[in-house]
TrEMBL record:
Pfam families: Acetyltransf_1. This is Ribosomal-protein-alanine N-acetyltransferase. Belongs to the acetyltransferase family. RimI subfamily. InterPro entries: AcTrfase_RimI/Ard1, Acyl_CoA_acyltransferase, GNAT_dom, YpeA/RimI_acetyltransf. It comes from the Bacteria. SUPFAM superfamilies: Acyl-CoA N-acyltransferases (Nat) (SSF55729). Residues 21-170 form the N-acetyltransferase domain. Keywords: Acyltransferase, Cytoplasm, Transferase. It comes from Candidatus Fischerbacteria bacterium RBG_13_37_8. One of its GO terms (molecular function) is N-acetyltransferase activity.
Length: 180
């Protein structure tokens, strides 16, 4: 179901319904584009230094990007940083390039993450989201995430509360198969 061949860092999941999308591990050379998306997406963006730490130091991190190809050029549509914390996958970062939002790419990337987690024998995936982030919360709920707790003043840039949201991987795979 999920394979990556030894000549590349692309990850192939046969069950995904979108053959035009490609997924691979992030490389340092992607960081200029990733940082542009990051800064356009978050009020407290991660720094280049932090991404490099995630790429090279954090052994529990899976930095993944979603892309499509136009002629022979790769266009990065979005990225995520998944932390494997024992038997839970923690989605520490997730963004879609602003020009490509509201086209279903966020849902497709979540679907990929669920299959990726399943391949690692992960049963549960969790994330934190700002209470004001309506579009993300709607997407996560459609993908089977449920709010399990309120994180008071979780975001230090503006003291905003967050929600902890949790999904069961196998349930989300089923829901997203219908949604996409
Ligand atoms: C949250 C985020 C990842 C969602 O990505 P996205 O690609 O826009 O997600 P989708 O396109 O799958 O879904 C978004 C909306 O588009 C709609 N949509 C999907 N396909 C569509 C299409 N072909 N035409 C029109 N609308 C469509 C969905 O129904 C959904 O609508 P809703 O919000 O009314 O429910 C993106 O907005 C983002 O990167 N935000 C900034 C970073 C961020 O907040 N990350 C999350 C941190 S926890």
């Amino acid at each position: 179901m999920l394979s990556s061949n030894k000549f590349s860092d692309y990850i192939i999941i046969d069950s995904l319904k979108k053959p035009e999308l490609f997924f691979r591990f992030m490389r340092e050379e992607d960081l200029d584009i990733i940082l542009r998306i990051e800064r356009a997406s978050f009020s407290a963006p991660w720094s280049k230094f932090y991404f490099i730490h995630e790429l090279h130091v954090n052994k529990n991190a899976f930095l993944l990007i979603m892309l499509h190809q136009v002629r022979y050029e790769e266009i990065i549509l979005g990225y995520t940083d998944l932390w494997k914390e024992k038997n839970i996958l923690h989605m520490a970062n997730f963004a879609i390039e602003p020009r490509y939002r509201n086209k279903g790419y966020g849902a497709s990337f979540l679907q990929f993450c669920m299959y990726f987690g399943d391949r690692l024998s992960i049963e549960t995936i969790k994330l934190e989201v700002r209470v004001s982030n309506d579009s993300a919360i709607r997407l996560y709920k459609k993908a089977g995430f449920q709010i399990t707790s309120l994180l008071k003043r979780y975001y230090i840039d503006n003291n905003e509360d967050g929600y902890l949201m949790v999904a069961e991987v196998k349930n989300s795979i089923k829901l997203l198969q219908v949604l996409i």
